[in-house]
Write a structure and sequence with these properties.
Rossmann fold; Four Helix Bundle (Hemerythrin (Met), subunit A); 456 residues; 3 domains; 6-stranded mixed β-sheet; binds guanosine-5'-triphosphate; alpha/beta; single chain; Gyrase A, domain 2; binds magnesium ion
């Protein structure tokens, strides 16, 4: 069990709000609540019931705020410990005052993510589920939240348990021979082990295969709008955003800064980046904007190369193309409401292209689908039913497990010798335990929970 001290934190965002929630977890929670929360009919506190009353200074009984509170008795709580939540008015001062009293009465200020960490250490959730809590909080689209919910509800954990069971069964078969070091593992048992290993490898490989999609669903992607001046880049940003975010004029060189906005494209969180039209400019400010744009080319996931379809492809377009060639790119022919003139040079013919008119709004849905398809490969996302891997740590560990199991099943010598085989199987189990938390080193745990906000 985890240390028995009691932690406290404000679980709602900093600043003014309708209400704020102060949360306590630990064995003194109820005792502290009794000292500071007074009700008209001074009864006790039943578990999981809401009570109305006043928060008071324990000595003078001076009223600080009227509030609601709930006491939740262990272990039927998020942390598996006694938990108290006080809902007071959301003014900064009131919240600070209540928190200070709670600390004076013996609670300790919680570290970031410490409530979730306790839920993990007390066995209420595994590490995969704990990590998903942060994704739930930060989810940017319904789809990314669905993916996080799958993980926090234990769907990925179940798949990992299934994987672990295959390895454990193999290990049990192997260990039956450990006391007879001169004896090879029987052929029938070897067959059974091989069949279990095949299942485990196939399961880990199918999980690994979900990573690329899982990652983009969780983290989103960055998409840069690039092109020579005046082709309609800012107009495209505004059209995709459905608001007049960037200044649009007929003067080339209007945009001089990077403009970033996040939108939801078919469930995918997309960070759009409008940039200055790329050209060599005499104007110092414009050139600074161009430099900013050039500097981002190598770090974005996709570039929309915007070309004016109503005018010929010029050296300026070619100059932009040179700067972005080799990157993941879609060509966007804008101004398709006007008679078409532009013809792409041969080297650009093979790149996927879409015709749009930001003026008329045409082609925008097709462009969105193409952007989503670039990352999801044309598949519809079944975020409610498919388990996705979303973290590089999980993917890399499963790759190592899969590689170790492959090596074992491919080497008949090892498979016949109980001691050698058991070492490999135990190593694989330890690796799996790193994902779910059983064997995760403390420094990794600290890193994971350190990403949380205080109060979660
Ligand atoms: N006919 C037509 N005009 C468009 C379309 N999209 C943009 N424009 C016009 O093209 C001009 C330039 O648009 P912007 O969106 O400012 O172009 P930009 O690429 O951001 O330009 P810079 O910021 O200067 O690099 C404006 O006059 C727009 O009204 C379109 O689809 N059709
Ligand atoms: Mg612009």
């Amino acid at each position: 069990m985890y240390p028995s001290d009691t932690i406290a934190a404000v679980s709602t965002p900093v600043g003014e709000g309708g209400i704020a929630i102060i949360r306590l977890s630990g064995q003194d929670s109820l005792c502290i609540l009794k000292k500071i929360f007074k009700r008209k009919n001074d009864g006790g506190f039943l578990s999981h019931r809401f009570y109305y009353g006043e928060v008071v200074l324990p000595d003078s009984l001076t009223v600080i705020d009227d509030a609601m509170c709930v006491y939740m008795k262990a272990p039927r709580t998020f942390t598996c410990e006694d938990v108290v939540e006080i809902q007071c008015h959301g003014g900064t001062l009131i919240v600070e005052q209540i928190l200070r009293i709670v600390i004076l009465l013996g609670a300790r200020l919680a570290e970031p993510g410490e409530f979730t960490k306790r839920a993990f250490l007390n066995g209420r959730i595994d590490l995969v589920q704990a990590e998903a809590v942060i994704d739930l909080i930060r989810g940017k689209t319904e789809t990314s939240i669905n993916v996080a919910r799958q993980q926090s509800s234990g769907a990925l954990s179940s798949a990992l348990v299934e994987l672990r069971d295959h390895i454990r069964h193999s290990l049990a078969l192997v260990e039956a021979y450990i006391d007879f070091p001169d004896e090879d593992i029987g052929v029938d048992d070897q067959e059974m082990i091989l069949s279990r290993l095949a299942k485990a490898i196939s399961l880990s490989d199918s999980l690994i295969a979900t990573y690329e999609e899982g990652r983009v669903l969780r983290d989103g992607v960055s998409v840069m709008i690039a092109g020579k001046p005046n082709v309609g880049k800012s107009s495209l940003l505004n059209t995709l955003l459905k608001e007049k975010r960037a200044i649009v004029t007929s003067i080339p060189g209007t945009t001089r800064d990077l403009i970033e906005e996040v939108i939801n494209i078919n469930g995918l969180p997309v960070k759009l980046l409008d940039t200055a039209g790329i050209r060599n400019s005499e104007d110092t400010v414009e050139q600074l904007g161009v430099d900013l744009a050039l500097a981002r080319i190598s770090s974005v996931d996709l570039i929309l190369f915007v070309v004016d379809a109503s005018s010929p492809f010029t050296d300026e377009d070619r100059h932009v193309y040179k700067a972005i060639s080799g990157r993941n790119m879609l060509v966007v022919f804008n101004k398709s409401d006007l008679p078409r003139i532009s013809n792409l040079p041969d080297e650009l013919q093979s790149i996927s292209a879409v015709s749009v008119s930001t003026l008329k709004g045409s082609g925008i849905d097709e462009l969105k689908s193409k952007i989503a398809d670039t990352f999801l490969h044309g598949k519809a996302i079944d975020s409610r039913n498919i388990v996705f891997l979303t973290k590089a740590r999980h993917r890399d560990t499963l790759k190592a497990v899969s590689a170790a199991l492959n090596l074992l099943s491919d080497s008949p010598d090892k498979l016949a010798q109980s001691e050698l085989a058991s070492i490999d199987l135990r190593d694989s189990l330890d690796l799996l335990g790193n994902i779910t938390g059983e064997t995760t080193p403390d420094d990794i745990l600290d890193l994971i929970f350190g990403q949380f906000c205080i109060g979660k």
